[in-house]
Amino acid sequence: MSNIIETLNAAGQQDLAARLETLEGDARAKLERDILSQDWEELRALYTEKSTTSLEDNVSADLKPMPFKIAADDLRYAFWKETGEILLGKGQVAAFLVAGGQGSRLGFDGPKGMFDIGLPSHKSLFQLQAERLQNLAAQVGHAIPWCIMTSPLNHEATVNFFTEHRFFGYARENIRFFDQGTICALTPDGHAVVDNDRLALVPDGNGGCFRALAQSGTLAWLIERGVRYVFLYSVDNALCRICDPAFIGALASEGRSMSASKVVHKAGPNENVGIFALQNNKPGVVEYSDLPESYRDMTNADGSLTFDGGNIAIHLFKIEGLRKLQTSKLPWHTARKTVCGIEKCWKFEQFLFDAFPQLGTMMPFGVIREEEFSPVKNADGNDSPKTAREMIGRLHREWLRKAHVEVKPGKLYEVSPTLSYAGEGLSRRVFERELGRNILEFDAE
Ligand code: UTP
Hints:
By secondary structure, the chain is an alpha/beta fold.
């Protein structure tokens, strides 16, 4: 006991130590457990470092853009796709969903994957993903292991939702849910935030995924199953081509790299996406909030953006890469947010893309935004359920048009992922049979 108090005092957390001393019984045990889950020396060092560092210090002066090409324009694309399908068919690929975030911008009360973006089918993001994966698994003839990272704040709700929906048809033995770690939020002057005699513990960022994958035994589970490639994606991209065979085939057949990442052309200088760049000649991502304006607005002679490679949080790792990252130290980023009613608190998080410099070379794989990237971040405006509905509606309409199906002018369409993974197999006959069931029509808003 005195050890806890000493540790807290040594880390400048006298207020918390005093608070603990006032508690008894169950309340004391709970707060003690929270306290023991944290590394107080690290928190102290983080606060000292972050409260004295300016934004520009996060970014190396030697920042160069990372060139990329749209993969579908490459002559090897069909070969990559076939290679990826073979690997999927051998059971060598797994999907890894990072879903431990709090989704505060969306303002939905529950795990973001449970959110219904308002498509005519009213399927949740989790259901859309489960169906897409199962369609692909059926095509390649092998189940795809699905790892789902939650946080202690949304774990139970996530697992309950899947259970209530019978895992959306996914075989239970092919899914693994596991928690990521948490870190204590600090007040503006560096004290632990306490709420109802508990620490304000928040998820430690999606960069916690490498630690969590290993510590939960999931990495070992994947290795045992013979998985060699892990496709990592975010919960809120309504257009994510999960386990895209071409992407997998490209890394497998071309790459000496340990990882590959999908890249889109940035919509404009102010788009809130990180950019791929070389820092000190090492590949990585600079988050939009860390990118100084001078870099953000930099243009080439033809007026195009110099730092144009947008990160859409779709990555592929070789299993050796994940093995290497399980014990690696990633840097901490900060956000100043209101926590438990206290403004400008310090929240610390790790970003998974900071792993790339540690893995050496990385393969960028350019994709078309309209086909693969529609994040649901905000309740309204940009990157919202409305923009996602419209993007899906337009893309699926285009799939049907390419299949020589006559679509109604002005209408949008939702094609069930159970019917088509990425636009394949939608002949006129399928359309006529499925319209109103697995193909739903809706109006643009
Ligand atoms: P975001 O950066 O959009 O964060 O996450 P968020 O927490 O979901 O949303 P806001 O910022 O509070 O509005 C990108 C992806 O990383 C996951 C999210 O679940 C999402 O899939 N993530 C984020 C984690 O898994 N853990 C975290 O600690 C943070």
